[in-house]
Design goal:
155 residues; mainly beta; Cathepsin D, subunit A, domain 1; two-stranded parallel ribbon; 1 helix; 55% strand
Length: 155
């Protein structure tokens, strides 16, 4: 059996930060079956800033008690995403810095309604490959939990 000592291990669930969006202490589900990462968002509105397309949206922090947080990010693309059940949906795509453990790197997220899902953030295969992460599905919360201070603008 080969071992990969140079790769960092994450569990099936991890705590993350999205600092550029002001989102701290989010629980993320690691999903190697999903290519792209997804962030639960509502009230998505496109606008222009200095001739560049941006989106404004509401993200949600917490699982038991939901706190809303208004975010803005540059719009990278609008894509049609096909779910595992074959349903196609048009989604806005943003790129923002993700912090997990002691690493930070830019990750593309589709903005989607995940209100019926237990985890508001899905971390897909592209994000894992970009950071050279290996998933051990028998583990949860392997990396250190981020600081849980409330971001400015949370309600």
């Amino acid at each position: 059996m080969k071992t990969f000592d140079h790769l960092s291990v994450v569990g099936l669930r991890e705590w993350i930060n999205l600092p550029e969006l002001g989102l701290v202490g989010l629980r993320a589900k690691i999903d190697t079956g999903a290519s792209t990462s997804a962030l639960h968002a509502s009230d998505v509105q496109e606008f222009e800033r200095d001739g560049t397309p941006w989106v404004r949206f509401t993200a949600y922090i917490g699982t038991q008690v939901q706190r809303r947080h208004r975010c803005e990010a540059e719009l990278v693309a609008v894509k049609i995403i096909k779910s595992s059940n074959g349903h196609a949906q048009t989604r806005h795509v943003i790129r923002t810095l993700l912090t997990l453990g002691d690493r930070s790197w830019p990750v593309e997220f589709t903005l989607a309604s995940r209100k019926t899902m237990q985890y508001r953030v899905l971390l897909g295969a592209k994000a894992l490959v970009a950071a050279a992460l290996v998933v051990n599905p028998a583990l949860k919360y392997v990396q250190d939990k981020p600081q849980l201070s409330s971001p400015s603008g949370a309600q």
